[in-house]
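Researcher: Batch entry, complex prediction.
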Amino acid sequence: MIRINENYLKLQASYLFSDIAKRVQAFQAGNPETEVIKLGIGDVTMPLPDACIAAFHSAVDEMADQKTFRGYGPEQGFDFLREKIAENDFKSRGADINADEIFVSDGAKCDTGNFQEIFATDAVVAIPDPVYPVYLDTNVMAGRTGEHNDGRFQGMVYLDSTRENNFIPELPSVPVDLIYLCFPNNPTGASVTKEELARWVDYAKKENALILFDAAYESFIRDESLPKSIYEIEGAREVAIEFRSFSKTAGFTGTRCAYTVVPKNCRAFDASGNPVMLHELWSRRHTTKFNGVSYPVQRAAEAVYSEQGSAEIKGLSDYYLINAALILEKMSAAGFECSGGKNSPYIWIWGNMDSWKFFDLLMQKAGVVVTPGAGFGKCGEGYIRISAFNSFENVQKAMERIAQALK
Ligand SMILES: *Cc1c(COP(=O)(O)O)cnc(C)c1O
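Model: Structure tokens for the complex:
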């Protein structure tokens, strides 16, 4: 009898985006003249930079010619890309990361989801709340939690991110082995200072724990004092893995390219307490289960680091940051307590009311669709997330309508 992995039955169906779609549809049916503006999505709207498109095209042409055709590439990614990443994203910022510590992949979703595979099933896991749902669900699938009760899984350590702590969670009050962190954060838009991040690195060292640091939104950081990489913190190489993606930084959500950094001296432990280097383990896992990102896509990603490419991707994040600044200004002026929106494309807004009620209010009165905070975890209740991923014209229109409606 073929039996299933019963852990899958513990997963909570995410009705968030289908519920939003249903409510929007019902509203639209009753108000056919209203043009609904969507500020709920976590997907980019601007096309790929010209530099990436040119490199993409010419790599496709190489594949058409016998002399330049390529079959399987290295699973970890081509050296031309790994070297540019190490130089531009790390060494130039004083973070000591080498090309052979970079694993190129087709997405930070897969990497953040897959990485837990190389740890013990009974590892104690700490996850921020609210959070990107992938970290939690993949640990549920792996059997690291008990049942789901009252909005939370037994056995999981939740790191509450609230207005009381400025959305930077306290260190866990019970010992944990594996810690997920994401800064600038989705959904709260919070960013972390070097001092705050150093506390987590120190904790991981002292407790023999490991940090999985998701830096998918690093390109939105404009405050030069903030760390873009956890490896800007001393000692982080031994205790932290970092995930990066070209999705939000260069518009690659539909093109697919990302990477994970596993430093050569980053460690976990075997059952006897002896250190084991994670680089070898992840390399074994990655080369066994993954066969590389397509050559043209890696050439397109490489172009992000050219002079033209880096100017163009700066232009992309600048564009969304102007939207974010406008949302932050107008929602604050409307009397709401807002956070994020600086160094981040997300604005997290306290409504002091049920998340869905807040959602309905903005849709009914202003025809603007946002994301209810409760969809990201228990601590998201009472909030909404507004995304800056839309055109400036639409953001402007949405903010005018909200101001008008709430006057
Ligand atoms: C969008 C996003 C990613 C990127 O995922 P890709 O699979 O690379 O597109 C990773 N982490 C967070 C928190 C995100 O919001």
